[in-house]
Every structure is written in C-alpha cells, then in structure tokens.
Amino acid sequence: MAHRTLWRLLAESDVRIGELLNLNVRDLALDDQVIHIAESKEGPKEVGITERAAVDLRQLVGERREGPVFLGLTGSRLTSSRAAETFWTVTGKSMHVLRYGRQDRQRPTGRAHAAHSPPNPRARELTDTPWL
User: Is residue 34 a contact partner of residue 49, using CB atoms and an 8 Å limit?
Assistant: First the structure.
C-alpha cells in the first residue's frame, strides 16, 4: 500500500520523491486534500492532491497520529532506493517514468523545469495501470 500510494503521488503531483518520503502524518490535511511540504528546494509549500490520493493516504496512515507517512517493512521510514527497487520489480521500469508526462515549463535559460508545473497530464493513463 505504501509503495502504490507513493507512486500515485509521484504520478499525479509535482512533488519530489524525497519530499514525499520525508512526510510525517502531521503534514497531511486529508480533508482539505493538501499535503504540507516542510522542506523543498523552493522552501515550505502546500500541495493539492487528488481525492483518490487522499483516500489512499487515509488508508495508509490509519489511526496513526505521528511518525513517517511511508513506512518500510521494518516499520522505519521507507527509503528512495527501496521504493525504486520495488517499482522496478513490479513494473520493469524506472520510477522516473512517473515524471516524464509532466508539462515542463521553461526556465529563462531555456532548460526544461518541472517545478511548479501543473499536475501530470498523463496521470490518468498512469493511474489506470494495474500497479497503481
């Protein structure tokens, strides 16, 4: 459940994996469909999430009121390497595939820039897959 919820959030939002894995239960405002990112490259930010992601997070967190949102099998915080390994095992793809459909904005230098971009336009296609 933790992995699929993480993958859904990566596919549907513009949040980096490290930002998601650092989330604590207290950072979730699921009734408002918002997650609070305390530390990001842009500084603290609030990110809207889909209703489906909020439902998944609610199930994942259950009755917990504190601690990491994403737990590994040992009960400690899930790591990005473990998340990537599991994604590869399940899909045969790199987790980066979840980011490729985003509409990138251009920096003044002309390089693609995904920060603050709208939700992934391929999110529906990605989230309709059996692994999400």
Answer: yes
Cβ 103 vs Cβ 117: under 8 Å: yes
Give 70-112 pLDDT, tens digit per residue: 998 889 999 999 999 999 999 898 888 887 644 443 233 333 3
The closest alpha carbon to 15, from 73, 38, 4, belongs to 38
- Going by C-alpha positions, the residue among 86, 83, 67, 65 that lies closest to residue 75 is 67
Total H helices, total E strands in the chain:
5, 5
For 106, counting Cβ atoms within 10 Å of its Cβ (0-12 exposed, 13-18 middle, 19+ buried), the class is exposed
Fill in the DSSP letter of residue 44. S
Length of the chain in residues, anyone?
132
Decide: residue 31, CB within 10 A, 0-12 exposed, 13-18 middle, 19+ buried: exposed
